Amino acid sequence: MPGAVYSGRGALRKIREITEGRFKKAALFTDRGVEQAGLLKIPLEILNEAGVETVVITDLPAEPNCDEAEQVMERFRRTGADFIVAAGGGSVMDVAKLASITADGSLTVRQLLEDPGLGRKCVPTLMIPTTAGTGSEATMNSIVAVPEKQLKVGIVNPEMIPDYVILDGSLLKNLPRKIAAATGVDAMAHAVECFTSNKANPFSNLFAKEAAKLIFDNIEAACEDPEAEEAKTNMLIAAFYAGAAISSSGTTAVHALSYPLGGKYHIPHGVSNAMLLLPVMRFNKSACLKEFAELYDTVVGKELQITDEEKADRLLKRMEEIIRRLEIPSSLSTFGIGTDALEELVNAGMDVKRLLNNNKREITHEDARRLYLEVMHG
Ligand SMILES: NC(=O)c1ccc[n+]([C@@H]2O[C@H](COP(=O)([O-])OP(=O)(O)OC[C@H]3O[C@@H](n4cnc5c(N)ncnc54)[C@H](O)[C@@H]3O)[C@@H](O)[C@H]2O)c1
Ligand SMILES: [Zn+2]
């Protein structure tokens, strides 16, 4: 778990307490979208007040591949910074986490892909998520695309767990609805997948259930209303909890089948998961009835008179309603992907064994083909 987590109104001010007298030079990782949304002004002011010199690294690509990430590592090393601050979504945080374990120059990102356990934390990190979200601020994962595999691959190493986290809903005020919706459903997928994973356990279940409740209660308001700061903060906390669930459980077939859609076709991570969440969970229903019923009890409230099967159906229906209302693209054809791509997708998706092994119901090539076909035309 991260060393210290601050949340709520004014949480950004904690930057001073975290850094003052402790660090000399910070590298602030971010991207153009976050910069243009005007979100760097306050963190930069506070770092300045704390007497910490700051170098801003802004030109991070969205959902980077391993070679793009490597270029950022080189730039970061030249700064000589002794502290890393990441202000952004999962793309920014994942690159910053890699920088924290490659700062001494002894490792490349490609070496980490081969043997993720090699890296050791050299520079401490503060994560300030601006989407809610990937939960990367709570996990030991960094996800990069690998061009020749046409897949996204997770580098998993506990040394990447952040040292400090700030969850401040004010940063999400102007997050475009489209991005808020897709990233919010990504967090929903994390919670539901972790709760129904073969790796689920009492520790991860605590976080997954709390995350699911907060998400079902807040996602619509957080996406629709720029002024709904409390709902946005609740979504940030939920995404963080769902990230904590990932670290001790793991995502399942939704994320597995989603990886080639990001790796080859560059469909945003949240969008590809939102497309696959319902088809995969309907497929999983027979193997996850008890878990779905328990989640229904958690997010909707206990209704003792109905069967587990009815609870599962109602939970899935509620998820479908939310995803439809948020108007997230629901078909691969929207992204120009047709049936000619099917076999390649099936083979690449079935290669993500790290996550498929977590899925309670075994998935065959034929099942994966049916699932991709189901989302081909929405
Ligand atoms: N490490 C993990 O545990 C983990 C978990 C899930 C996903 N991921 C990875 O995270 C990446 C996706 O991250 P993401 O979904 O957060 O999106 P993202 O970081 O790619 O950001 C999406 C867009 O939103 C913009 N943006 C972000 N915050 C904003 C704000 N507050 N206001 C305005 N614009 C804003 C960004 O500039 C960017 O253009 C993927 O690479 C995915 O694989 C990592
Ligand atoms: Zn995800």
Describe this protein's structure.
The chain is an alpha/beta fold and 378 residues long. It folds into 2 domains: 4-172, Rossmann fold; 177-376, Dehydroquinate synthase-like, alpha domain (Up-down Bundle), CATH 1.20.1090. Helix content is 52%, strand content 11%. It has 16 helices and 8 strands. The protein has helices spanning 14-19, 32-36, 41-49, 66-79, 90-102, 109-114, 177-195, 202-224, 229-248, 253-263, 269-284, 289-300, 308-325, 342-349, 353-356, 365-376, and strands at 4-7, 25-29, 53-57, 83-88, 125-129, 141-146, 151-156, 164-167. The strands form 2 sheets. Strands 1-8-5-4-2-3 form a 6-stranded parallel sheet, with helices on both faces. It has a two-stranded antiparallel ribbon with strand order 6-7. Helix 7 packs parallel to helix 11, helix 10 (253-263) packs antiparallel against helix 11 (269-284) and helix 11 runs antiparallel to helix 13. The radius of gyration is 20 Å and the shape is globular. The two termini are 38 Å apart. The model has no long low-confidence stretch (mean pLDDT 96). Nicotinamide-adenine-dinucleotide binds next to helix 2, helix 5, strand 6, helix 7 and helix 9.
